[in-house]
Amino acid sequence: MSKLKWNEEHEEWYINGVKPSEGFGDTVYKILKFIGVKKLLEIMELEQGCGCETRRTNWNKMFPYKQ
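and the corresponding structure tokens:
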């Protein structure tokens, strides 16, 4: 059973130490991080950045999860 806890440092709710996804962007981010794509981008050190955070925020706004 999942346990919901308040993290004072980040002032956010967490389930078993993981922040719940706010929308589709968070879910895609977690999947890519799990399979290692996020680490690959860090190794490549793209100068212009990949736009991941902007895309994640936009997708969360377009496809939010009901809370």
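(Above: one complete record from the training split.) The beta strands are 4-7, 12-15.
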